[in-house]
Design goal:
This protein has helices spanning 2-25, 166-182, 185-191, 201-228; strands at 30-34, 36-40, 53-62, 65-73, 78-85, 88-91, 93-98, 103-110, 116-125, 136-146, 152-153. Helix 1 (2-25) runs antiparallel to helix 4 (201-228). Helix content is 33%, strand content 34%. The protein has 229 residues and is of the alpha+beta class. A 6-stranded antiparallel beta sheet has the order 7-8-4-3-1-11, covered by helices on one side. It has a 5-stranded antiparallel beta sheet with strand order 2-10-9-5-6, with no helix packed on it. It has 4 helices and 11 strands; from the N terminus they run H-E-E-E-E-E-E-E-E-E-E-E-H-H-H. The chain starts with a helix and ends with a helix. The protein has 2 domains: 2-20 and 201-228, no CATH class; 28-191, Sandwich (Immunoglobulin-like). It is a peptidoglycan-anchor. Residues 1-23 form the signal peptide. One of its GO terms (biological process) is heme transport. GO terms for molecular function: hemoglobin binding.
């Protein structure tokens, strides 16, 4: 009896432990936003570069791939923006640029929902743009720390909707940036957005857990009646 109960309990604990990971790491195909911040390479302190990366980022999920798009302001100062991969570091792809606003949208691809992404950047500020300090020329290693709990679906992102173009992505980022400069309207907007869809595996685990609990109860009840007889 004790062995049966122990086996059922271990199975139940396994599925319960797997449930949060499945819910957090599985997203249906679509377009989302996700908040993040730029941290220093050797600590969890926010890097000064954090001000040059606008929030939130855009997350496009398609066929098991996770494409992250971020908007950089002061784009002319950031000469290189690389992210880590299996082979070291690779340049991010520029999907759109707005020279008049000195912004660009860069993207990179991951195999999972982003968490911490290691990055290398090269910052170069000409002397005429850095008065009194001279030319600023430095390379840094930074970390992009993403908040999975902040993931929100993009409005109008239905099953039949098409992926937005690069120019549309840039326009969305610029509009959010403008709202941030005049107030906190984007906070109210976020509250009206829907939560992201997750895979059906989470629901399956719930049913399995309920089944295991029911089986345990029936075994205990059956054994009790058998002893009485």
């Amino acid at each position: 009896m004790k062995r049966i109960f122990s086996a059922v309990f271990l199975l139940f604990a396994f599925f319960c432990a797997s449930l949060p990971a499945s819910a957090n790491d599985s997203l249906a195909d679509g377009t989302y936003t996700i908040n993040y911040k730029i941290l220093k390479a050797d600590s969890d302190s926010v890097s000064i570069a954090n001000d040059y990366w606008e929030k939130p980022a855009k997350l496009i999920v398609k066929n098991g791939k996770y494409i992250v798009q971020v908007t950089l302001n002061h784009s002319s100062w950031i000469k290189e923006f690389k992210v880590s991969n299996k082979n070291g570091f690779a340049d991010t792809k520029v999907v759109s640029a707005d020279p008049s606003a000195n912004k660009r949208v860069a993207q990179f691809e991951l195999d999972q929902v982003p968490d911490i992404v290691l990055s290398q950047i090269h910052v170069y500020i000409p002397e005429d743009e850095f008065p009194g300090e001279g030319v600023y020329d430095s390379r840094y290693t930074i970390r992009l720390k993403f908040d999975k709990n902040s993931i929100q679906t993009v409005r109008g992102n239905g099953n039949g909707s098409k992926e937005p173009s690069a120019s549309a992505a840039a326009g969305t980022s610029n509009e959010k940036s403008d709202r941030n400069g005049t107030g906190q309207q984007n906070e109210a907007d976020k509250q009206t957005e829907n939560n992201p869809e997750t895979g059906d595996s989470a629901l399956l685990y719930v049913f399995i857990a309920l089944f295991l609990l029911s089986t345990t109860f029936l075994i205990i009840r059956f054994k009790s009646r058998f002893k009485v007889l």
